[in-house]
Structures are given as C-alpha cells and as structure tokens.
Amino acid sequence: MSAYFASPLLVFLSESMIIFSLGQAPLRFLHSSYGNSVISEIIRKEIRGIEGVLSIVDVEVSHDNSYAKVYYSVLGSEEQVAKDKEIIEKNTGKVRYEIGKRIRLRVTPEIKFVYSDGLEQGSRVLDLINKISKGEIK
Prior knowledge:
- By secondary structure, this protein is α+β, with helices and mostly antiparallel strands.
- The chain contains four helices and seven strands.
- It has a four-stranded antiparallel β-sheet with strand order 1-2-3-4, with no helix packed on it. Strands 5-6-7 form a three-stranded mixed β-sheet.
- The longest helix is centred in the C-terminal third of the chain and has 17 residues, at 118-134.
- It is elongated and about 55 Å long.
C-alpha cells in the first residue's frame, strides 16, 4: 500500500480501495476489500451462533455513506443457511454500531444485508468440473 501526503489530507491507494482521510476520520467508507474485511471481522468476533461458512461477497455504499448494502453468502445445509440468515438480520443494528465504533464517520451507514447464493453456485460448478475431469460425467 502506498500513501501520498497532501497535508493534512492523506490518501491511501491500493488496487481495490481508496480511502480519503482528514486526520483520523475517513471521509468515505468504500466497498471492496476494506468494507468487506471490516464487516467480516465484526461478524466473526461479535456475532454468535453462525453455523455455516459465511462470506461477505460485496458492499455497496451510497455516495454520502448513509446507506450500505452488504451482500453475503452462506455455505452449509439448508437449515444452517436459514438460521444464519435469521441471525444476520437480527444483528444488523449491532453490526452498524460496531462499524461506527471502528471507523470514524460523520454518518454510520444504515445497513441492509442481502443474501447471495454465489458460494453455493461456485461449489456446484467446482464439483461438476471435478466429476468431468475424473471421467464421471461425459
């Protein structure tokens, strides 16, 4: 990660994120790897009862940081997926509170979790590729 100093504005650049910071307070909470990692860490450390493998797929944030859509996927049985969806929905306020504590923003975004079955589809595709490579499917 490289940093360019433009006193007092600090800009961090990497291939998938840009964060503008004035002192200690970020001006923009962007999606990509930064938002994904913050939310993943909060869910991993603060939310209890997750049974399946939960992954944050993407985070879309409005231009003024007032709203955020968090796309997530769960890999597990149908019961685990249903239970994890319920736990995530129930703990949306806690995730928002933790984001507000960890990232200094003027407005902590209102969060909406959106389920995506991307991990399940990817797993099925890999299973099919493995079966084809073994000659089980022609």
